[in-house]
Amino acid sequence: LSASFTTMTTRQDPPSPSPDFWFKDGSIVIVVEDTAFRIHQSILSRHSDVFADLFTVPQPRTDVQSIEGCPVVHLTDSVADFSDVVRALYEPFYFDRLPPNADLSTLISFVSGILRISTKYNLVLLRQKCIEVLQTKFPCTLEGCDALLASGYKYVSSTIVRAIPLARETNIPELLPWAFYISTNIATDAILDDPILSWQDKALCLAGKNHLWEMQKSLTHRFLFEFTKALTCQQACQSRLPQTMNWRRAEELRANPHPLHLFDDWDTLKVCSKCLELVQAQHQKGREQVWNRLPAIFHLGSWDDIHKDQNR
Which positions fall inside the BTB domain (predicted)? Predict the structure, then answer.
């Protein structure tokens, strides 16, 4: 993302000093909207090569504006976002403000401004910290997915849809496969009426519903729909399998597909140990296949493509 800034302005009214970040020994004044931050050029340069390059470019003498002897740089960003970044830079334990059990809405509100600014101006460490925070709710490995499912965390649909445009805006494609996956459990009408998602992303959510449902029937939970006994079965398990999958239950699953769900109600199948071993292996292999194909389902390429795109 390109950075937008200028070193002069035609504004008539002087900006108001930030009540929190106006240091008497500050060496640079950053003006964002109507607020001026007198901070330390060395701190910005140490964390951002974009700011470091800006400060080393000589400016024509006639173009230089100063406040209290400090050069002034105007940024075309949100003052709330920039305030969050400065606070994170000056407070070493800023991220410790997040409670360990913070919900997704809290996490997104906490990091979104920092993420936008750190991505735009290449504050690498701050950006990575924000990504790590979000990945606690949007795993990019099957192991992380299993840990999240085991925690029993419940998503709120209105919060899920905030994550998708944020991930796109700040180039964090690693968040998108899981974000789209859980979005497929949002009701169709709610997806269509959502004011945040683009129409392209709405289409991906709706198409993904059908893809995941087909994978749940054919790969991960096939034994619930079409049971095939093991070759070494000696108890006629196929005829003994309870018929628990009625049309009502199938319709519920179709509307809310979840092929990565870890099936654990094995005792209800009432099959022999050989058949049980077979379906458990099929179940786990199917989950691995679904996870590996997850980005492609939502037109994101492969996991390798995603990792490369994010690290460019």
Answer: 26-102
Class of domain 5-88: alpha beta
Residue that is written with structure tokens 């949007």 in the block: 138
Q: What is the DSSP string of 128-175?
A: HHHHHHHHTTS-SSHHHHHHHHHHT----HHHHHHHHHHHHHTT-GGG
Write the burial class of residue 58 (CB in 10 Å: 0-12 exposed, 13-18 middle, 19+ buried): exposed
275 neighbors 160 (Cβ within 8 angstroms): no
Task: State pTM to two decimals.
Answer: 0.87
Residue type, 172: I
pLDDT in tens, 188-240: 999 999 999 999 999 999 999 999 999 999 999 988 888 888 888 878 786 65
C-alpha 34/C-alpha 64 separation (Å) is 19
Q: Which helix (H) or strand (E) holds 240?
A: helix 237-240
